[in-house]
Amino acid sequence: MLTVTELSADRVDLVDRHLPLSRLSEQGPEHSTYLIAWEDAQPVGHAHIAWTGTYLGVPEIQDVLVLPGHRRCGIASLLTEAAEDEARRRGSDRISLSVSQDQNPAAKLLYDKLGYVDAGVEHPVLMPMPWGDDRRAVTDATMQAAARVVASADAP
Ligand SMILES: CC(C)(COP(=O)(O)OP(=O)(O)OC[C@H]1O[C@@H](n2cnc3c(N)ncnc32)[C@H](O)[C@@H]1OP(=O)(O)O)[C@@H](O)C(=O)NCCC(=O)NCCS
Questions:
Q1: Domains (ranges, CATH) in the chain?
Q2: Does any ligand 1 atom lie closer than 6 A to the CB of residue 152?
Q3: Whose CA is nearest to atom 33 of ligand 1?
């Protein structure tokens, strides 16, 4: 059975053995949340949601990854919908993400299908600098910032 849960501290090691949790250091209930998709007891995908410090100033879905053997089964769609639900629960009326316009056709098709539309802004990408952890914003014209309206929980 397929389920989606928030990553809890006691499951970090288990999940990390199957899926890279590259944004774990950003994790904190007020800043970000990792959602994990489970096929029974096995982690098969994840999505990270940043609640603060995002490019468009609304919650941002990042780091969506589904294990290769589990793709095209609706897992990324389920993770995205779970992220939208959580954003709605926290009172947001929209959510965003960035996707390459031409380097990642699978992701582009996924988010087109889910109703994400071009936010109409060039997207500066934070690039790790080769000499250290410092990150610098560079504009990558292939990246598209996309947003989707998710009605707020307390909307009429
Ligand atoms: C992109 C990715 C997250 C999609 O995950 P997924 O669980 O396979 O996606 P879903 O099953 O929810 O796909 C939903 C729809 O998206 C589209 N889609 C997804 N993958 C596709 C592919 N490889 N080719 C064409 N369309 C695709 C289809 O319309 C699909 O619906 P369908 O299967 O009924 O035709 C997955 O391929 C992945 O982990 N890729 C590597 C990491 C990555 O690129 N992440 C996105 C960063 S923005």
A1: 2-149 (3.40.630.30)
A2: no
A3: 72
| Mean pLDDT across the chain | 85
Q: In what order do the strands lie in the sheet with 135-149?
A: 2-6, 32-39, 42-50, 60-66, 94-100, 135-149, 117-128
DSSP conformational letter for 70: G
Cα 86 to middle of ligand 1, angstroms: 21
Ligand 1 contact via 44 beta carbon (within 6 Å): no
98: which residues sit within 8 A by CB, 6+ positions away? Answer: 55, 60, 62, 123, 125, 143, 144, 145, 146
Tens digit of each residue's pLDDT (9 = 90 or more) over 68-81? 999 999 999 999 99
In this prediction, residues 131-141 reach a mean pLDDT of 54
On whether the pTM is more than 0.85, the answer is yes
Percent of the chain with pLDDT over 90: 57
